[in-house]
Design a protein that fits this description.
Chain lengths: 342, 342, 342
């Protein structure tokens, strides 16, 4: 694929510096760039790479305008990182468009009563259950699974081997990565004298528009009402969302995050990798949880919250961790000393 | 589906208050209930929802008898949560029964020498290897995988895209959710001057009756002997069980728990989400591990065990975490002061 | 399968004690061994099991030579654990060889333009995309997925239902376990006034030779350049490797480890189960991270590093954890006392 940088400047709404006819055929980093590459500089930390880069064109912010112009062609944008994001989308859409193949692969199994829009694609060895509905432009990847009565909105893609369970819904322009399981049973049991009696999970999963769900991530169906993921939510890989969780719009969780049942997460929240959010609690909007932190109670005020044990060389850690077990008694001893000294 | 509440009271062994001919067509929460809904109240915390609920019938405990009767039809049971669990099971069994389709889907691949009971079902695009045996009433979901020589007990369900590896066994009435992998190789290597030499994993996985295994959960095969999961164990999603682990009957692990190789877990144990249990150790029966806690040594006495860093606003956490690295020396300074003061 | 212990002694380069014609048909533990079993003793901790074992032959180190000879046949090797590893490999290779079935299963979908070596095998219901290349001796398991343009090196095995994404490469003699997803999109978004704008992930994943990747483990494709896993790396189950991570040769991560984007891990590093390594940092060669530890900054020196909260009975933990929130102020109070006392 090739593109003229004049065309790209128009696309990105940026100011073009240099010859609009210069062609690029690749998006790359400043460091690995060749003359056929368009690169971007967003983080001032990497400014030193700018002058040395062999990129055919660079996307920069206004502050870097002079430095970029000094080395060659550039597109100056208010937010170069956002411009880069949009460029990658445009690039990939053009590539995909060139090889799009609609229709249902002959090896796929589409049960009677499923509705697949003629402008949708169902890949090899995929399964679409009775009563499911696949909207226009949606792509069901090879070996993916759409359960009975499930719904896939316009232009949403299920990557190879993703699972959207029975009766679950995902809106438009979503992406479900390989191995993700939407709609497995929530973890619900009643204790009967030490034995667990299963509570059948009768709810479903309802996912809004523009949601991305990572590889091997799990979102459980609700016990009675639905589990809900609002518009614009982004979940990384290997995330666990328990039954009846509600994730507010535009929240994003990094890899390996776990959210227990019935937690209610606000809008625009984030959680770093490996964070655990316990169940039956609420996070306000704009709450940010540091990686590997455990949320044990509701958080009512926006802000950053943390709780992870600092890493240290093993010997130092051992000494401090051992002392930690006496912390409460150390406090008592300190108090006693204070009394004595007063 | 419809059911008369008189029939349900008999089923649940409860006392019926109200007209036995009232029909319900849905199980729901008190809050979202309509007149066609049967709901339950188990947790006194939600008692305030009882009077306001529009449910056609409510399941309550003896203590709520009067309050429930004051608003309409009710079924009074000794343990309303357990009654609710049983109701959901009966409900789902009736629904499933109505649409059960036995037999082997024509797109499934069943190798020669596999034994599939005529009363079992093998879904679309599923695979059953040579020498495997599927008992009566078992359901192998679409795109699921049963390896050569594996065994699936009566009425056990493998959900779509679950994997039961070569030679592994699961007993009766189990559920294996989508994406679960039973019988991948354990993580075993010998160090040969800095390079890892694979130890082939020659054991299998043996799973008892009434076991439920969550979506994308992994249970590794044993190195020499088998990995064993006893009857009634419940594992949530994204749980990792290493080779030669032994999980005692009726233990339950929440999402994202990891158990390292050769750990021996007792009966009736639980672990909260994200807990890590190291290898080559033992937990007694009735040991309960708090979420996100790391078990580093054997625990011989029943009880609740914890070890997670408390969450705090980020600024406070930073100060305390930094001080934590000096905790041992703080203790020494305190000791010195105590000597001086004595 | 049967083997004479004389043959095995030659294979392992060990000294044979006893009758070379003794036949064994199984590799087992000392404890569960029968006369048809060959077992090994590597850890002196299990020495007491030696005399009692019914094994037909035991593999031991030089220090155990006399004790082993006293009970029967033995093979004495410099490193009995390594010898055991090699024995298991030889054993499994012979078993597999006996039932190897090359070729493409008729139910598999191999797109036009894919190159499958005649000495490779593609299992039932597997998918191989256009332009992919599968080398001699490679095995693509049932229901596995090889994306367009992907590359699978000689004798590498994708287990059932593994995914190797579009354009991703794995070298020779690798193993990718069931459910692993190589090449899902990295987690990259630009913030546009509170909404996340996707950055298409244009890199791939490049994996060296002799790499093993665990069940349901995820390795994301790079944003622009590739994510790289060097030769001999071993990843356990449910591991998350973010985009543009670089893992140096012969490093090994236990289950549930998460590595965030652009982390650069040295050679011969290890991480225990559940460890989290944050992004944009570097670990030197020979850095070992304890289980459940969070790496928040670069580590430049080899060694063992730890940071996990010690487990305790719940009541003690609660007291210490509560006090932990006052740790910084305790230090201030101690300082004040010290001043007063000096």
């Amino acid at each position: 694929m090739q593109a003229r940088i004049g065309e790209l400047a128009l696309l990105l709404g940026g100011e073009l510096i240099g010859d609009s006819g210069v062609e690029v055929s690749r998006i790359g980093t400043l460091e690995s760039a060749a003359p056929d590459t368009i690169a971007f500089l967003a983080n001032p930390r990497y400014q030193s790479q700018l002058a040395a880069s062999r990129a055919g064109c660079v996307i920069v912010g206004p502050a870097m305008r002079e430095a970029a112009a000094a080395r060659g062609a550039a597109i100056v944008c208010a937010d170069p990182y956002l411009a880069h994001a949009r460029l990658t989308q445009w690039w990939v859409a053009r590539e995909r468009g060139a090889r799009a193949a609609g229709g249902i692969h002959p090896s796929a199994v589409v049960e009677a009563g499923a509705l697949v829009d003629p402008a949708a694609a169902v890949g090899a060895l995929a399964f679409v259950g009775r009563g499911a509905r696949i909207e226009a432009g949606a792509v069901i990847g090879a070996q993916a699974h759409v359960g009975a009565g499930a719904y896939v909105g316009e232009r949403t893609r299920l990557e190879p081997r993703a699972v959207l369970g029975e009766g679950c819904r995902i809106g438009a322009r979503g992406i479900v990565h390989s191995g993700a399981v939407i709609g497995a049973d929530g973890f619900g049991f009643a204790d009967n004298q030490g034995e667990w009696v299963k509570i059948e999970q009768l709810g479903a999963v309802r996912i809004g528009d523009d949601v991305e769900i990572g590889a091997n991530t799990c979102i459980d169906r609700g016990a009675l009402d639905d589990t809900v993921i609002e518009d614009g939510v982004k979940l990384d890989n290997l995330v666990q969302i328990g039954h009846n969780v509600h994730v507010g719009a535009h929240s994003a969780f990094a890899g390996c995050v776990g959210v227990a049942g019935s937690a209610k997460i606000g809008r625009h929240c984030t959680a770093g990798g490996g964070a655990i959010i316990l169940g039956h609690l609420e996070l306000a909007d704009h709450v940010h949880i540091t990686a590997a932190t455990v949320v044990t109670h509701s958080i009512r005020r926006p802000g950053q919250y943390s709780g992870l044990f600092p890493i240290d060389d093993n010997a130092s850690w051992e000494k401090n961790a051992a002392t930690l077990k006496q912390l409460h008694s150390l406090r008592e001893r300190l108090r006693a000393l204070e009394k004595k000294a007063s």
